[in-house]
Amino acid sequence: MRLERRDHRPIALIIAAALMAVLAALAMAGILIGLAGAPVLKAYWLIVSGAFGTRLAATETLTRATPLILTGLAAAVAFRARLWNIGAEGQFYLGAIIVAALGSDFLSALPAPLLIPALLTAGAIAGMVLILVPLWLRLRFSVDEVVTSLLLNFVSLLFVSMLIDGVLKDPLAFGWPQSTPVSDHALLPKLIERSRLHIGLAFAVVIAVVVHFAQSRTVFGMQSRAAGLNPAAAIFAGVPLKLTLVKVACLSGGLAGLAGAIEVMGVKGYVTTDLSPGFGYSGIIVAMLANLHPIGVVLTALFTATMFVGADGMSRALSIPTYIADVTVALSLLTMLVALFFTQYRIRR
Amino acid sequence: MMALVDIVSSAGLWAAVLRIATPLLFGTLGALLCERSGVLNLGIEGIMTFGAMVGWLAVFHGADLWSGLIVAAVAGAIFGLLHGVLTVTLGLSQHVTGLGITLFASSLSYFIFRLVVPLASTPPTIAPFQPVDVPVLSELPFFGQAFFSQTPPTYLAILLALSMAYLLFRTPLGLAIRMTGENPHAAEAQGINPVMIRYGAILTGSALMAMGGAFLTLSAFNSFFPTMVQGRGWICIALVIFASWRPGRAFLGALLFAFFDAFQLRLQTVIGGLVPYQIFLMTPYLLSIAALAVMARRARVPQSLMQPYRRGER
Hints:
heterodimer; A: mainly alpha; two-stranded antiparallel sheet; 13 helices; B: mainly alpha; ABC transporter involved in vitamin B12 uptake, BtuC; two-stranded antiparallel ribbon; 1% strand; transmembrane helix (chain A); transmembrane (chain A); membrane (chain A)
């Protein structure tokens, strides 16, 4: 048996492979659900109805998808340039905490039309600053950014924990470590009344479209792609590699920081250390499932959010641990890697 | 100042240093072996978590402690096999597959643990490994108590570091592993099968990683809880670079690292009121980053690390 590279990859083949991968992951998760002693088909039905069965469930799923779109984009733009930003989780928290700091105090005197953009920008900048550390270490000392960006996640979370236990601690929170809430006019408008769904979803989708066009139609998009495909050839072709990587990093970290800012301003209004149930890490899967395509990210974020929200209800009904959602999503990443491989290669005997 | 001297001169600190170094040493040796054959295994964080869970679970269900450690090693090797299929046979990006395995293995650990042990106010415990005094040596003043009264897996880890150094640099198999990591094409020309070497290294290495995780539940603590590995896997990846891919230096690196960790823990009790405790908890991660920055340039990376090997394809 040997592997032979395919000459071209039709888009239909890629989409078929992606669907096969998700089905395979769902089948494997089904085995786990079966081993846990629950009816598999009923479990899947409960996941779907738990995520979309009622108006509340559907808005909840879309609310959950919002940060995933942004962290997914953060991973997608970076991975495309072979910049391994695994630090979206930390960047998310820094974006969130800066909003809590500025939005409850310094900037809160501003009127909403100025305050909201100012806070979103601040959140994005916080994320950028954090990713520039691993990038600098890579460019200056040739340290692999996977480990450094990852280790900074732990540092950021501890930093946030320190602030919400210290200077930013809400005195009205009965001793719980949580930040002071942002002022009311810093909160994002609701998309649908009497739900948690906020304007951030529309914003995230627009950003996905903008990123798509930036990547497919601009010089920056071409350069970041070239940097990822073959850095040596890119330099030879006159791509300013370092500058491109800095731009890519700022975009990636900025998107992750923005995700944190939007989550605070859209959903909770304040920061706790469980603000993110791993949005940064799930973003990696969202991006890989979408084959790093920005529009695909919107769809795979929706799939991931469906799994997480749906599994909540399913696990309560059938007493199966909610971690089944994480397992399924992680499994789909692995099956997707294999499926995409077979769109590039075929087996020859 | 006196307080600092007191901390450093206490046998308890040094005993803790060896204890904290043990899981790091297992993990670092595992990652080191994989990388020497040319494969980066970023699945380590998840494999350690799975090892911690499955080892604990085996003992909780009546296995003895050594069997628990072996169960963990076998489970680690299975994840290693998965990583081998993805990176060696299919030649996928080692960064991405490793992260995928970490996410899969850790979420699977939490899932299985919650399934078997429903949420309870007090987590169930097991009777962990007890310290064993090394005959004669443990009676030495200070040193005896500090270094020679550890749990058996700690001695095992040190033994492993020595044998791995011997294996890599004194045996034909070690030469074959190193050669595969440097240049698999040249290795193959010498009659070595790079695919087999890489599979062997990943399986063994992943088994060691899982044993490092199992040390946490079977020796350092007596229960399992999610996020207990807390980035130790990533720190091991940093330690491999710090150690320049050498087992002896991996041991020293793990000790150095554990020293700072044990030291900050005790320092907290002295100046804890003045400085937020989170600052102390940040130090291991910041230390890893600093170690990477200092050592990365000098380190001699195995030349074919992260490069898939396909016969007849360049």
